[in-house]
Amino acid sequence: MIAEIYNLKNCTPHEIAIITETGEQISIPPSGYQIRAATITEEIGELETEYGPIPVAISSLGGITILKEGEEISIEAAREAFKDVDGVIVPHILKDFIEDIRIILQKPYLDVFAPNTAQAIRDAAGRIKGVPNLIRLSP
Which residue, 43, 46, 59, 76, is most buried by CB atoms nearer than 10 A? Predict the structure, then answer.
């Protein structure tokens, strides 16, 4: 019997390296698609510091967009591209947008994951080599 393969799409702009407890590395290349939230930034003033005036802003996340090779695509194109996908890997910051992603893609049971960067495995210089696992963001 052939096991069904879970179709996972990396929707971050970089490769995800999972380093298992045994040291094995599993590489998940970027899919060419990115799921992002718009960032809304509003300047609110400036700080007078010993270094000079420093502008200060606040930011919040707006609506979800889906990009292919850096260009925003239509909802219809996104739905077609993700029709056979079981799960997506996105940045952890999108944890509050899971339902928006599911609605846009018309996939109410889509699994949403993020790399576990809180427990990143680093080299001697402090650069991230990989993560021990993915964090399931969706219930």
Answer: 46
Do residues 34 and 10 make contact, with C-beta atoms less than 8 angstroms apart?
A: no
Q: What is the Cβ-side half-sphere exposure of residue 91, based on CA atoms within 13 angstroms?
A: 12
Enumerate the β-bridge partners of residue 136.
113
Determine the Cα–Cα distance for residues 91 and 53; give it in Å rounded to an integer: 32
* Residues ≥6 apart with Cβ < 8 Å to 68: 32, 33, 77, 81
pLDDT in tens, 48-73: 999 999 999 999 998 999 999 999 99
CA-to-CA distance for 122 and 131, rounded, in angstroms?
Answer: 9
Q: Which two tokens stand for residue 66?
A: 């889906």
Residue with tokens 């990115």: 34
pTM score, two decimals? 0.86
Question: Domain limits of the chain?
Answer: 8-36+64-136
